[in-house]
């Protein structure tokens, strides 16, 4: 099986995202889709003591009606303020220098799309994830269309026969159509494994930089990738809804 993962570029995603990346033979950045305000494209949560706070890249024109690949940041001072916020969030963590080094490498990019991609690639490289996978962008592919049909066409264009996806895809995928064309759909079964965090905090829903700062070379041990077939996933969703 050749497993394909397609996702929008995101700012230092939560660790569960990297469980998905661990299973991918080919990874495709969906960079030519329209930016969605309120998404995780340009923001992520950090710990502030036992609470959480947002770290958000301000966008020129608020990113309205722009493709992700065309996004531009508003001003320049946000890079310094982000580093200060991250450092404050991770203060006292044993591997804070590793996390800050990864941050600095990603934030050295002047292009916002390159920064977002680097904020995935740099943590993945540190954890030894996906070093042999194929990486591409949809903006470099000649695959048009919309919704689930385009997703299926992209998977087939990449030579995939297995599509690994997050939970939101259940709202629009035509699973039977994927099956009919020889592509198995599997949903992530996120482990949501936690790691040592400040007193009062125990959450996996923060940036992967928190995991790296507190676990260092052992960060990958907290990632336990697993999937579930779409039929079983939808049954479970029906039971819990």
Q: What can you tell me about this protein's structure?
A:
This protein has 241 residues and is α/β, with parallel strands linked by helices. It has one domain (3-240). 35% of the residues lie in helices and 15% in strands. The chain contains eight helices and eight strands; from the N terminus they run E-H-E-E-E-H-H-H-E-H-E-H-E-H-E-H. It has helices spanning 15-22, 78-90, 96-107, 112-127, 147-157, 175-180, 208-215, 230-240, and strands at 3-7, 26-29, 43-48, 51-56, 134-137, 162-165, 184-188, 227-229. The strands form two sheets. The chain has a six-stranded mixed beta sheet, sandwiched between helices. A two-stranded antiparallel ribbon has the order 3-4. Helix 6 links the parallel strand 6 and strand 7. Helix 2 (78-90) runs antiparallel to helix 3 (96-107) and helix 3 packs antiparallel against helix 7. It is globular and about 55 Å long. The two termini are 32 Å apart. The model has no long low-confidence stretch (mean pLDDT 94). It holds the Pfam family WbqC. It comes from Rhizobium vallis. This is WbqC family protein.
Count of DSSP strands: 8
Termini separation comes to 32 Å
| SS field, number of helical segments | 8
Q: Give the mean pLDDT.
A: 94
Protein name: WbqC family protein
Organism: Rhizobium vallis
InterPro entries: WbqC
């Amino acid at each position: 099986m050749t497993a394909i993962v397609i996702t929008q570029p995101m700012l230092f995603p939560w660790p569960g995202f990297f469980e998905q990346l661990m299973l991918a033979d080919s990874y495709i950045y969906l960079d030519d889709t329209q930016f969605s305000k309120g998404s995780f494209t340009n923001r992520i949560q950090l710990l502030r003591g036992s609470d959480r706070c947002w770290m958000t890249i301000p966008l020129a024109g608020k990113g309205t009606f722009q493709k992700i690949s065309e996004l531009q940041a508003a001003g320049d001072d946000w890079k310094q303020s982000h580093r200060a916020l991250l450092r404050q969030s991770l203060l006292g963590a044993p591997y804070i220098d590793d996390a800050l080094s990864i941050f600095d490498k990603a934030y050295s990019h002047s292009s916002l799309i390159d920064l977002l991609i680097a904020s995935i690639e740099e943590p993945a490289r540190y954890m030894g994830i996906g070093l042999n996978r194929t990486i591409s962008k949809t903006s470099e592919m000649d695959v048009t269309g919309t919704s689930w049909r385009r997703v299926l066409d992209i998977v087939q264009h990449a030579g995939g026969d297995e599509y690994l996806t997050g939970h939101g895809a259940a709202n629009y995928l035509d699973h039977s159509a994927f099956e009919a064309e020889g592509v198995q759909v599997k949903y992530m079964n996120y482990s949501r494994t936690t790691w040592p965090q400040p007193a009062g905090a125990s959450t996996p829903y923060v940036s992967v930089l928190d995991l790296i700062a507190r676990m260092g070379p052992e960060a990958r041990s907290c990632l336990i990738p697993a999937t579930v077939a779409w039929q079983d996933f939808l049954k479970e969703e029906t039971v819990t809804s």
